[in-house]
């Protein structure tokens, strides 16, 4: 019963066929705008396959012979498969048997070959008798001509589903295999070609939208990659590399006429009636910051980064003591000087009120603590965006505590609380968090009910959980014996010594060190950056890690080792291990290698 109701709902929103009960005007719109014409433009991706002489005849496969055909694959997915009714079809499971997989692929090939031989022998406009006869078939007659039972037909469609998720196949007669999906009401209002599809995977939807947003700049990646390789080859500085990137983006980017007009006239590329602010609530060591331009003029105690919204929130006036970070970001703007704002903030304040108000009374500014500037209360609450790490329960609780509970120092009040850990602190603050969260998340109560129902179903095993999800596709088997590993660790501990004091490094100036870093090739730089990120992490819970560098004999491996030791003298605290190919190749002496280990 539920399935039938879902089917009716789908059919009421998106149609894939011409309805007999439709008025003449709607049928004309479908015929004019929604009927696909298979022409040479469909072969833009240059994909094709060949149908053998005895293939593509449906029930007469192997008995009847015809010309061998080279069929160009339509990039729009036509012809669509006929369907008796709208049906949701899942792809084959990864653990499907080889026999089932082969059978499904055989049926899928039979369906494809029959449709293409019948419909694509000639392009539309030069229709054959077989094509016209096909359009007159009912679904049952189509199955007879195809030579498959209905269950075999649906099994073949499971192999034709290339996506990892489910796919909705709409009800469609044989005459409608070239009819594009449409919404009847939208088609009447917007008389042009439309393509409606149900979203079964939100990530595919995001990728589809982004592919259109970046369509005109598809060729930029090759140019930028060439600049990157050139900079790595000649050891260009960061400033020179950024200049080269800017030159490529400015001179080689393909833009639309509309964007050219906007840029020429100096018009704003984006104008909205609402301001959106993003809050990064992750750990401090995982946040990005904007570097100041006058780094050479700063003292050792000065912050090299511009203040973030969390810095301003920590210095909020005492009148805002009970405000959470989310409320502070939504309700207040940062004012750089008493009574004045920065240029970008001035633009935001222009859109700070109701749509029908040109000028709004602005509240008086309030000073922040520690002379960090001023804040001004907004006339309309801004829209805030934030990310919750739902894959890590502890991190998600940390994010919620940051966003919806008041704090002055995030380290002492949340990350390293004296009395509670993150889980205990979250349980204590949970009612307060939910109260604040409802202010920024619509339908919060409905979402809680859904999460509770899913947790109850999982607890009672009402649906299967794929235990293999997230596992690596390839598992590298450990070949080193346990006794060999114990001997290696024992020998390493025996020879451990002070690395930074015993290994001589001929790098006196900071500029020389940076020059040597820039001369590392792409693979060496990747290893070096990975080590530096791990060594400089402020995470107290980080575990020891092991880095193995292997390759042909040469001095380049030693460069990575020396630079790493120079940048982080206290390297033995993390048991940093470098394995240099083979000792007998004499890349470095055995004595130096033992000290490194």
Describe this structure in words.
The protein folds into four domains: 2-208, no CATH class; 217-261, no CATH class; 276-292 and 303-457, no CATH class; 482-596, no CATH class. It has helices at residues 2-13, 24-33, 98-119, 129-135, 139-146, 150-160, 184-189, 202-213, 220-234, 238-251, 257-265, 309-314, 325-331, 343-350, 393-404, 410-415, 422-437, 444-459, 482-495, 499-502, 510-518, 522-535, 556-567, 590-596, and strands at residues 48-51, 69-72, 87-89, 167-169, 276-279, 332-335, 366-367, 374-377, 383-386. It is 43% helix and 5% strand. It contains 24 helices and nine strands. The model is unreliable at 342-361, 463-476, 497-507 and 568-590 (pLDDT under 50). The strands form four sheets. A three-stranded antiparallel β-sheet has the order 6-8-7. The termini are far apart.
Cα separation of the termini = 68 Å
If helices are DSSP runs of H or I spanning 4 or more residues, what is the number of helices? 24
| Class by alpha and beta content | mainly alpha
User: Percent range for helical residues?
Assistant: 40-55%
Strand order of the largest sheet: 6-8-7
- Overall average residue pLDDT: 77
- Which residue ranges are poorly predicted, with pLDDT under 50 across at least 5 consecutive positions? 342-361, 463-476, 497-507, 568-590
In percent, how much strand structure appears in the residues?
5-15%
Structure described in brief:
It contains 24 helices and 9 strands. The protein is mainly alpha-helical and 597 residues long. It has 4 domains: 2-208, no CATH class; 217-261, no CATH class; 276-292 and 303-457, no CATH class; 482-596, no CATH class.
């Amino acid at each position: 019963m539920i399935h039938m109701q879902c089917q009716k709902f789908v059919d009421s929103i998106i149609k894939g066929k011409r309805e007999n009960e439709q008025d003449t005007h709607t049928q004309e719109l479908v015929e004019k705008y929604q009927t696909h014409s298979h022409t040479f433009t469909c072969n833009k991706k240059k994909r094709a396959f060949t149908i053998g002489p005895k293939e593509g005849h449906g029930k007469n496969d192997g008995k009847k012979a015809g010309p061998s055909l080279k069929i160009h694959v339509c990039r729009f997915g036509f012809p669509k498969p006929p369907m008796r009714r709208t049906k949701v079809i899942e792809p084959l499971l990864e653990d499907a048997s080889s026999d089932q997989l082969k059978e499904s692929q055989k049926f899928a090939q039979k369906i494809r070959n029959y449709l293409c031989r019948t419909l694509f022998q000639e392009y539309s406009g030069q229709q054959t008798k077989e094509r016209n006869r096909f359009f007159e078939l009912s679904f049952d007659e189509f199955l007879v001509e195809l030579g498959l039972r209905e269950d075999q037909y649906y099994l073949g469609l499971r192999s034709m589903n290339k996506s990892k998720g489910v796919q909705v196949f709409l009800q469609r007669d044989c005459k409608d295999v070239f009819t594009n999906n449409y919404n009847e009401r939208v088609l009447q209002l917007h008389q042009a070609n439309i393509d409606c599809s149900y979203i079964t995977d939100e990530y595919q939807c995001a990728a589809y939208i982004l592919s259109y947003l970046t369509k005109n700049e598809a060729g930029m990646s090759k140019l930028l990659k060439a600049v990157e390789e050139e900079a790595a080859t000649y050891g260009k500085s960061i400033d020179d590399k950024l200049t080269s990137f800017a030159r490529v983006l400015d001179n080689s980017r393909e833009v639309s006429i509309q964007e050219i007009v906007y840029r020429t006239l100096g018009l704003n590329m984006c104008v909205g009636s609402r301001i959106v602010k993003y809050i990064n609530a992750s750990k401090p060591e995982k946040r990005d910051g904007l570097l100041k331009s006058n780094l050479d003029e700063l003292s050792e105690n000065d912050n090299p980064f511009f203040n973030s919204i969390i810095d301003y929130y920590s210095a909020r006036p005492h009148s805002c003591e009970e405000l959470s970070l989310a409320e502070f970001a939504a309700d207040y703007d940062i004012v750089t000087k008493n009574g004045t704002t920065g240029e970008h903030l001035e633009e935001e304040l222009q859109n700070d009120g109701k749509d029908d108000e040109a000028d709004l009374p602005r509240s008086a500014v309030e000073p922040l603590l520690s002379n960090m500037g001023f804040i001004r209360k907004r006339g309309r609450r801004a829209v805030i965006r934030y990310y919750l790490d739902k894959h890590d329960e502890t991190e998600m609780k940390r994010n919620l505590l940051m966003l919806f509970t008041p704090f002055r120092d995030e380290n002492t009040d949340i990350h390293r609380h004296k009395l509670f850990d993150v889980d205990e602190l979250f349980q204590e603050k949970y009612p307060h968090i939910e109260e604040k969260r409802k202010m920024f998340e619509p339908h919060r109560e409905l979402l809680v009910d859904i999460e509770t129902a899913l947790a109850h179903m999982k607890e009672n095993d009402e649906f299967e959980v794929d235990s293999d999800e997230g596992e690596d596709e390839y598992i590298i088997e450990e070949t080193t014996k346990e006794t060999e590993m114990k001997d290696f660790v024992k020998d390493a501990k025996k020879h451990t010594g002070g690395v930074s004091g015993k290994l001589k490094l001929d790098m006196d100036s900071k500029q020389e060190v940076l020059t040597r870093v820039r001369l590392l090739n792409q693979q060496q730089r990747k290893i070096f950056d990975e080590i530096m990120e791990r060594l400089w992490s402020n995470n107290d819970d980080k575990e020891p890690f092991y880095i193995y560098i292997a390759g042909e004999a040469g001095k380049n491996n030693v460069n990575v080792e020396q630079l790493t030791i120079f940048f982080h003298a206290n390297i033995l605290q993390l048991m940093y291990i470098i394995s240099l190919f083979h000792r007998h190749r004499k890349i470095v002496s055995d004595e130096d290698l033992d000290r490194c280990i």
